[in-house]
């Protein structure tokens, strides 16, 4: 087989051809969740499986977006206080990180936690990212391991920063308003010129709540994200999980005014709403329905230990004294973690526990669990 070079046009052409073949093999239509999975995770071609830069603070680096650990090391250093408490409360010594990205968060946690962590396990499907992580974390190699799948039983503290938003979602479109209630699943077809287009099919699927109003309505449901939570609950026999991501509780997620859905793409630090073009060259995400994640956890036997904004969480964990020690420019950058119009309000933290309930420090003020 001829090797595919990792140039954008070549990559996009090869991935688009692969997706078109999949569409044809599945009868000419695939759901958006299937399209999103192919666009992000096709081996060697999908966005998270190819060699593009992805993570970085500036577009000049060739990156597409910045996450909190790339923004400032204070993010991981502050999260480490919560992880250390969780390790102590649960009597465990291992950290499991899902979707470790560039390895920045792992490095910050390992540096801060020191001997408190006996082993640090990274669960990541991307071979190219794994190579970058191994290089970045070389000084901690004796504690590290990478796995593709989870063992039957795990113990420890799980961390997932911006993991749930990259899990494929199903798109539901309502035509004709609440009165008619005609719901369709939005999928993707291939056109004669090779491009992709939207195509809706009637479906029995529904959002978890009724949505008022006469307007057409587009939204997402999160079967894969909920499945991930149930899998985690099934395997985590002792420990806790901290999931940080952008999203809302159910009432806000399915608000009548949020009628265009939340699917968004990121490329070159610019955002757009068209996932059907430049496949493989840009990230595709959807906001997280944290109510759905919390309910999936509870139904699978886990405790919801807390839910709050990233701002409240980091302040509770001691971010402000750390910021005061920084030079002004670095302090201004770190402030983006908690500013309302930056990451502070849109990003949330959900804490789940396996075993006896306890109160994590990140939720002592501003816990919003009652609003889920």
Could you walk me through the main structural features you see in this protein, from its secondary elements to its overall organization?
By secondary structure, the protein is α/β, with parallel strands linked by helices. 34% of the residues lie in helices and 26% in strands. It has helices at residues 8-25, 32-41, 68-71, 74-90, 104-113, 127-136, 177-180, 223-235, 250-253, 290-299, 310-316, 319-324, 328-335, 340-344; strands at 30-31, 54-55, 63-65, 94-98, 119-123, 144-147, 154-161, 170-175, 182-190, 196-202, 217-221, 236-248, 264-267, 270-272, 283-285, 288-289, 303-309, 347-354. Helix 6 links the parallel strand 5 (119-123) and strand 6 (144-147). The longest helix is centred in the first third of the chain and has 18 residues, at 8-25.
Taking the sheet with the most strands, its summary is: 8 strands, mixed
Strand segment count: 18
Derived from helix and strand composition plus strand pairing, the structural class reads alpha/beta
Average pLDDT metric: 93
The portion of residues forming beta strands comes to 25-35%
Number of helical elements: 14
Could you say which overall geometry the principal axes of the C-alpha atoms support? Answer: globular
Q: What proportion of the residues is helical, as a percent range?
A: 25-40%
Q: Give the C-alpha Rg.
A: 21 Å
Low-pLDDT ranges: 1-7
Termini separation: 50 Å
How would you summarize the topology of this molecule?
Layout: H1 8-25, E1 30-31, H2 32-41, E2 54-55, E3 63-65, H3 68-71, H4 74-90, E4 94-98, H5 104-113, E5 119-123, H6 127-136, E6 144-147, E7 154-161, E8 170-175, H7 177-180, E9 182-190, E10 196-202, E11 217-221, H8 223-235, E12 236-248, H9 250-253, E13 264-267, E14 270-272, E15 283-285, E16 288-289, H10 290-299, E17 303-309, H11 310-316, H12 319-324, H13 328-335, H14 340-344, E18 347-354
